[in-house]
Amino acid sequence: MSKKKRFNDRPFAYHQEVELSITTLTNLGLGLGRVALDGPGTEPRWVVMVAFALPGERVRARIFRNHGNYSEADLVEVLAASPNRIEPKCALFGRCGGCQYQNLRYGEQLEWKRRQVAELLEHMAGIALEVSPVIGSPRPFSYRSKITPHFNGPRDDRELAIGFLKQGTRFEIVDVPRCEIATEPINLRLAEVRADIRRRASEGGFERGATLLFRDVGGAVTTSFDDRVTETVAAGPGQPLRLSFLARDFFQNNPFILPAFVSYVRDQARSSGARFLVDAYCGSGLFALASAGSFERVAGVEVSESSIVFARENAAANGIANASFLAGDAAAIFSGLDFPGAETAVVIDPPRKGCDEAFLRQLFEFKPRAVVYVSCDPATQMRDLKGFLAAGYKATAVQPFDLFPQTRHLECVITLVRLA
């Protein structure tokens, strides 16, 4: 058995308390301030990150980890509060790791998210480009249409905790009887399932833990990963799309902001003047089908063959005849296309880790006229952006969308145009 890693006690002892002023928020949603290490009167240089502390506040914090050039600490007391601090709606805020910003006014959440994108753009990609104000969610709460609570295997006689990871831990579960960012139909179904899980656990029905799924589609909640569901999306004036997919599949989880989000992506691709559109990472066809009316032909490319089956079915179900979908080989993603790159716009919406080198190499070889890059992680997006700049592309617009109110997460759309 390996020994427990010894605490690094420099520059602070374990659980030593410090006072500091919070000056900014990191892109992980942590308050950041600096403290002096050399006594009173010296310049504060050492960075301390404090969860749930807000810019403009003076706080007392308890150190729990020292790194090579910064420390992490828990918030003990707010000595001087920010005027933007509010009472969290959820009683579990600060313990549950799901939300970071319930104590911050929603307008300020949007402004800080905009600043964070601008800072990443400048420092990671070396671009000084204006970042548009974040487009907020019509619902700051009760917006999330899919949640995946967990529970660990039953232990002793303690009541089974069913919920999400505790803030700052990797395995401990906080019991969550109600999630304030989930839709009301999900919360009603959550109460029923929790009662059933606990009953079955008390009867010895579980030897190990599990992950649950709740997906709300138009007020009907499914709890089966393998259920086929159909989401109706308002993709533009007079254009509702009905898209089917498996409940476990990826699909944007804030249906209330989705119409504005999808319309923006389509309009940015269309503004390039391209005749054709490729939706890479197309999933069940959301962007391709929502954009089909704006292009001569559109094509979706996806390495998941099951997603391609749904995308083709969705095209037929919506009467869209100028869309085709290809199950692309990861090593030859664009090989099945007959679109000329100079007349094509490409929409990419990769997973949180961003684009891999093989995909980017093939994309740059295809030489599309424009790329609309959608990302749920601006940090990996900015990393990839450097490759676009080196390949002869110019960023022309940066538009964040707040698909995840009360959390540090957001979607960012960057429009890139190939230079002549």
Please explain how this structure is put together.
The protein has three domains: 17-85, Nucleic acid-binding proteins (OB fold (Dihydrolipoamide Acetyltransferase, E2P), Beta Barrel); 108-139 and 228-418, Rossmann fold, CATH 3.40.50; 146-222, no CATH class. The longest helix is centred in the first third of the chain and has 20 residues, at 106-125. A seven-stranded mixed beta sheet has the order 17-16-15-18-19-21-20, with helices on both faces. Strands 1-2-3-5-4 form a five-stranded mixed beta barrel. It is globular. The chain has helices at residues 106-125, 184-202, 258-270, 286-291, 305-317, 357-366, 378-390; strands at 17-25, 30-35, 46-51, 58-66, 70-80, 146-147, 150-151, 163-165, 173-175, 210-211, 214-217, 220-222, 228-234, 240-246, 276-280, 297-302, 323-327, 344-348, 370-375, 393-401, 411-418. By secondary structure, it is an alpha+beta fold.
Keywords:
Rossmann fold, 420 residues, globular, 7 helices, alpha+beta, OB fold (Dihydrolipoamide Acetyltransferase, E2P), 7-stranded mixed beta sheet
